Hints:
By secondary structure, the protein is mostly helical. Helix content is 67%, strand content 6%. It is built from 19 helices and seven strands. 32% of the residues are buried.
Amino acid sequence: MKKFITTLQNIWKIKELRNRILFTLGLLLIYRIGSFVVLPGVMPSALENANSEGASDILGLINVFTGGAFNNASVFALGIMPYITASIIVQLLGFAVPYFQRLQQREGESGRKKLSQITRLLTLAITLVQGGGYLAYIKSQGAVSPIMPDSVFWLANIIILSMGTIFAMWLGERITDRGVGNGISLLITIGIIATLPSALIFEFQAQLQGGRLLVFLLEMAILFVVVMATIMVVQAVRRIPIQFAKRMVGRGASNIPTAGARDYIPVKVNASGVMPIIFAQALMFLPATVAQFTTSNGQPSTNSFLMALNDFTSGPYNVIYFILVVVFTYIYTALLVNPQQYSEYLKRQNAFIPGIKPGKKTADFIDTITTRITLPGSVFLGIIAILPAFASRFGVNTAFAMFFGGTSLLILVAVVLDTLQQIESHLIMRKYDGLVKSGRLKGRSGVQGIGASM
């Protein structure tokens, strides 16, 4: 505890770091306040039924990511999700379309600026489409004031929702530039964290009323173990040792060619991050859409298979979901990790993997290693994805069960680690002790080796 207080004091002593943290907290507070500003013409009380529904469908998931703003019908109801969607689309285009490949890899800063502008325009287009769907959803819930003209309701709120998303995107970019951590990720994280206290209190009260306090303590212990295991896998890397042919030590006549010190290529066990779960989850929402529009005698479809795929605790849902996560992990890792690029980089740096011939042999070796370590990484990711279903099956309320795995847990772990790593970098740079006594936190910029420079 004493070391923790000392670390906080050291953080406060560094003026730049202190200002960055306060700036970040201020913008996050603005975002949270905006989550409670209701759209004009909307009656929030009429949305209580939507608020009471479970979080197992796409609307519940969006509500978690926006910190309740979706069910509150606020100006930030769509949150930063259209921007995330646009970023994913642009990233996928970079793998398939030559023009976007050139912007990403060869045109440097100017290319990144063009991609950023394209992402913003695509975000606006997606927001207009999603905003129209969201307003239609509000009308279907009977939450529109009868004195509000339809034309005014649609036009005004489409503009407000679009400006809300653009403003949230601007807040995220300002946090990234002048604050601590990745701003867009922090906006999502603060929304997820906002739903945690109420879910935790509800679960505690439910177990206490049932006389199962020991069960609640067991749930907390399991949650702690799951979080620790997630951190281990997110941080885990397979180090492929490399060696430089020779290095010159000293100057002038004292130059001595020596064998270079060994370095390594860090290949992450989970190189794809949270993306496979997001893609798989998007596909798993399709059966619910099919069930909604497939009718029988004017009633929604009662097909047992479609109904099972609409229930995130069912067996068929979780088996298909698990398989999709594993498959998407391999696909996304193959897109991200380029063994040929590693091989060419080593050749340019006059480096080699001990016992492996340069060129194609090196590329094949790196590809084999990546394939092997992706298997446990993909299986673990699949298990994490379906853990909320198991938690719900064992009696944990749906809102709290979402924190036992899935997208929410992975985003929380990744963003918190990345933010703490940035704070630690500021401390160590000014010769203060880091956040941990031994070792170092490894965020995206904390992984050492040549992989970070490629």
